[in-house]
Amino acid sequence: MTIRVLVCDDQDLVRAGYVTILSAQPDFDVVGQATDGIAAVEQARLLRPDIVIMDIRMPLLDGIEATRRLVGPGTAPGALRVLVVTTFNLDQYVFEALRAGASGFLLKDTPAETMIEGVRVVAAGHALIAPEVTRDLIGHFGARIREGNGGQADRVLAELTEREIDVLRLIVAGLSNPEIAAALFISRETVKTYVSRILAKLGLRDRIHAVVLAHRIGLFTGEP
């Protein structure tokens, strides 16, 4: 299956580099380019790509707000996914990008091979950031946004079965699917099924956003 990609970056050389790298792959089709956040949103809605590669610092509208308008809370669920790529290795950028709805985060000095594989991973519906990185990052910022959300934790738990809660707890702890399978003495395929059910019930795009939600509402606070 061909992966349709929209490249959004205000730097001509960077944008051209992405286009050259991605266009050389037989399973990629670069369907458009944008140089600012407003154009990124307009082009994404017009061209309907599978993946938007989004810079953060762009004129007129930054990449985080552009991401929020395309895939953030309140937007209609769809196949579109956003991979944020930026020069700035700042925790706040990563956190805000994920909260805005991005499915992955890379730095611009990422090797070309990693970028290519990252696009494929995100297109397949998976999160790009390693679970342990996500856990540490969101754990750092989570305390800022937990106040006033106590009742939400109970409502979330009420949506899930006991086994789904067990799986969600281990996702939040940073375990991979094989590690969850070993911890709960179930198969990896069963874990995948539980993860899919959890995401569907909670209206989440991927496991990164499950971790974001858990920390935002203080779910499993204080647990290892």
From TrEMBL:
In the record, 4-aspartylphosphate modifications are located at 55
Record keywords: Transcription included? Answer: yes
Give every Response regulatory domain span. 4-123
Cross-referenced InterPro entries, in alphabetical order? CheY-like_superfamily, NreC/VraR/RcsB-like_REC, Sig_transdc_resp-reg_C-effctor, Sig_transdc_resp-reg_receiver, Tscrpt_reg_LuxR_C, WalR-like
Q: Where is the HTH luxR-type domain?
A: 153-218
What species is this protein from? Streptosporangium vulgare
**Alphabetical list of PROSITE patterns matching this protein:** HTH_LUXR_1 (PS00622), HTH_LUXR_2 (PS50043), RESPONSE_REGULATORY (PS50110)
The protein here is known as Response regulator
Q: Name one Pfam family in it.
A: Response_reg
Q: Which UniProt keywords apply?
A: DNA-binding, Phosphoprotein, Transcription, Transcription regulation
